[in-house]
Inverse folding.
């Protein structure tokens, strides 16, 4: 029974214990890493609050006792206790509530002490470590390669955004990055073989097709209200805004297109291995039946991903007396376009991947 359980998990029991111990050490290291911050960090040791009613809402004022937990030149010494005021609305649309045990970034000015933010890195670190653990437990070597690929892609993307994110030609940087992402991920996950090469071609061809359609539509339609596009640097030119929006669309569609391409290319290869003399019509029909099971799911994944992006904006907008239609018309437009393009990419990837798979594997069943 133990051997069967070990085989299913993909890692031995001692390995699981070691992984859990390493994860715990990493989480605790991130939790107590406040000495690495060059800014003052304080821990809330007590708090009391008072409600103040206004004509619009109820405002809550907190008095926080904060103990400084790191040494910096910008603040009192480590271990000193200070009092900080904080306020937030009862509905928490504005301001933020802090509780005992929270770590806060604080500064000193002429009026006293102010809160500049909250230390949340240990929460993010915990989620990342749990994800890595599951990938290693379930995927073993493939899971580890996936982690490496994601880390490399994240560093490349962060570097590109840092040095070229505000440039007028950012779209070309994104295109180069997408090629690197596609080749790197597929190579790490599937290895370097004919199936990987076919998947790369199918993915890039589909993204190029979708990107071309989007470019034509953006150029030959009325100007978009880019004032509502999140994080658009001011001031901006129309070409810069178009490039940024097109970059969002292509990066958002890449993951779904790559997933479909991997599945359809693998299915096409398997069909050609089993039935080397299958006609093109029969191949397309067989691939179509396979795609029926995944197309709807992938389109819904893209839909819910974009819904998650617009949901906080919709809630805040209605809290500030904007109608749901106004929020959707302005901010929701961009999410809706990303969803439509993602859906088009998913549909387009099916025949293109089948065609590429046929070219790569027809007559090569050995």
């Amino acid at each position: 029974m133990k051997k069967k359980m070990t085989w299913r998990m993909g890692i031995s029991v001692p390995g699981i214990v070691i992984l859990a111990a390493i994860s715990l050490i990493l989480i605790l290291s991130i939790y107590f890493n406040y000495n690495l911050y060059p800014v003052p960090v304080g821990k809330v040791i007590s708090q009391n609050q008072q409600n103040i009613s206004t004509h619009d809402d109820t405002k809550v004022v907190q008095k926080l006792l904060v103990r400084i937990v790191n040494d910096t030149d910008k603040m009192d010494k480590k271990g000193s206790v200070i009092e900080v005021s904080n306020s937030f609305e009862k509905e928490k649309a504005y301001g933020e509530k802090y509780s005992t045990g929270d770590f806060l970034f604080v500064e000193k000015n002429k009026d006293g002490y102010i809160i500049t933010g909250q230390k949340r890195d240990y929460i993010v670190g915990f989620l990342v470590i749990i994800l890595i653990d599951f990938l290693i437990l379930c995927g073993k070597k493939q899971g580890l390669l996936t982690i490496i690929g994601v880390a490399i892609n994240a560093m490349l993307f962060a570097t590109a955004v840092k040095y070229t994110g505000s440039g007028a030609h950012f779209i070309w940087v994104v295109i180069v990055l997408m090629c690197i992402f596609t080749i790197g991920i597929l190579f790490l996950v599937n290895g370097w073989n004919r199936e990987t090469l076919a998947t790369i071609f199918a993915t890039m061809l589909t993204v190029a097709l979708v990107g071309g359609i989007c470019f034509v539509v953006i150029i030959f339609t009325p100007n978009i209200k880019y004032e509502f596009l999140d994080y658009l640097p001011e001031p901006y030119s129309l070409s810069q805004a178009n490039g940024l929006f097109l970059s969002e669309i292509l990066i958002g569609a890449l993951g779904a297109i790559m997933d479909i391409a991997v599945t359809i290319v693998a299915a096409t290869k398997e069909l050609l291995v089993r039935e080397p003399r299958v006609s093109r019509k029969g191949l397309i029909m067989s691939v179509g039946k396979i795609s029926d099971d995944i197309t709807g799911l992938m389109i819904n994944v893209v839909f819910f991903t974009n819904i998650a992006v617009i949901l906080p904006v919709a809630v805040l907008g209605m809290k500030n007396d904007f109608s749901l239609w106004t929020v959707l018309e302005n901010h929701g437009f961009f999410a809706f376009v990303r969803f439509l393009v993602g859906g088009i990419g998913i549909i387009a990837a099916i025949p293109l991947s089948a065609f590429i798979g046929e070219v790569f594997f027809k007559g090569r069943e050995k």
Notes: Residues 280-319 form the longest helix (40 residues). Confidence is low (pLDDT under 50) at residues 1-9. The first strand starts at residue 41 and ends at 53. The beta strands are 41-53, 58-68, 81-89, 103-109, 112-118.
